[in-house]
Write a structure and sequence with these properties.
Blueprint lengths: L13 H5 L20 H14 L4 H4 L3 H12 L2 H32 L10
Length: 119
């Protein structure tokens, strides 16, 4: 029958080899400094700002018309919203075609050419 005790007086078990008697004091900031100095203070400030301000920053920058548009989009059903997106995509495509026509027209009329330098 095998036992966990060492068979020879000088031989130790694997657990004894892994045992460490080092005492680590985790309370000291010198032993456990921040990985990036100042991050803790920054995090505390950001959490404090988030709790004190009632509206998020992105919402505070919006105008009244933008907020109304967001509320309108929020009240649409999925199919209505998809139809609205398709309409916007079609409008963007039409504007692109119109811009291409106008650029071609400007090229033929030579209005985009640089003025020639007199010699």
């Amino acid at each position: 029958m095998a036992s966990n005790a060492p068979s020879k007086p000088n031989e130790s078990t694997d657990d004894d080899k892994l045992m460490s008697f080092e005492n680590l004091d985790r309370a000291s900031p010198e032993l456990w400094p921040e990985k990036i100095p100042g991050v803790t203070e920054f995090e505390v400030e950001q959490k404090a700002k988030g709790k004190t301000s009632g509206t998020p920053k992105w919402l505070a920058d919006l105008e009244k018309d933008d907020i109304n548009l967001l509320q309108e989009f929020g009240s649409l059903t999925l199919s209505q919203l998809m139809e609205k997106v398709r309409g916007l995509q079609n409008l963007a495509y039409q504007l692109g075609l119109e811009e291409a026509r106008e650029m071609t027209r400007g090229k033929f009329l030579n209005i985009l050419a640089k003025p020639k330098q007199p010699r």
